[in-house]
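debug: dumping io for the single-chain case to check the tokenizer round-trip. Nothing else runs in this session.
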Amino acid sequence: MTDARKLVRAGSVMLVVAGILYIALPFVPGSRALDQIGTTNWWIASYLSTLHHFVLLFGLFAPFTIQREQAGGLGLIAFVAATLGNALAGAIGVVRIAVLPVMASNPDGQAALICLPFYDAATEAARGFIAAACEGWNFDVLGVWAGSAWFALIFGSIALGLAIVRAKVLRPWPGVLLVIGWLGILAGLVLPIPELIAGFAYAVVGAAYLWCGLEVWSAPRPG
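debug: decoded output
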């Protein structure tokens, strides 16, 4: 087996692992609420999400490799954007795990939690809370970081789904699920959708990556 085949096979396994991690997210209730920081569910969800993003960094090259010619420029753009988005989101997850519990245990830090852009800022802004609660706080750098991460992640992931459908190397259904799931996550960020419904979108994305990994495993690999 050539090195390219080994790398693609390893990447397909990483896609399956990343998918399983996201599928599990909706089954960790209450983990996104501000008052749940530091609880068991919050820790579980934080680690699941952060590991998902880092594992994908090793998995995304697999579908890119086996369909790079058929997917064309769209495939390249999707790979670069999705990789960048997952790297930024994974780094945000590390900050979330390392910083938020410390802030939650400090009375002075608790007032800033709602202002942190990397902690559901888009949802809070959509509900009209950020402007009133964060007066006097300056998180411009974190805001750019979080905004760039979400833009790259959503754009790149949707583009990846479309590239899978377009290339026709794999069956199209993982790509279709990827588009549907990320559109659902986007809706959950900007609309007051119940947590259970919004969480289902993460499970759809997880199923898409899991299915994609299985498809890549069985697809013809480069020599």
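debug: round-trip ok. Residues 117-131 have pLDDT under 50 and may be disordered.
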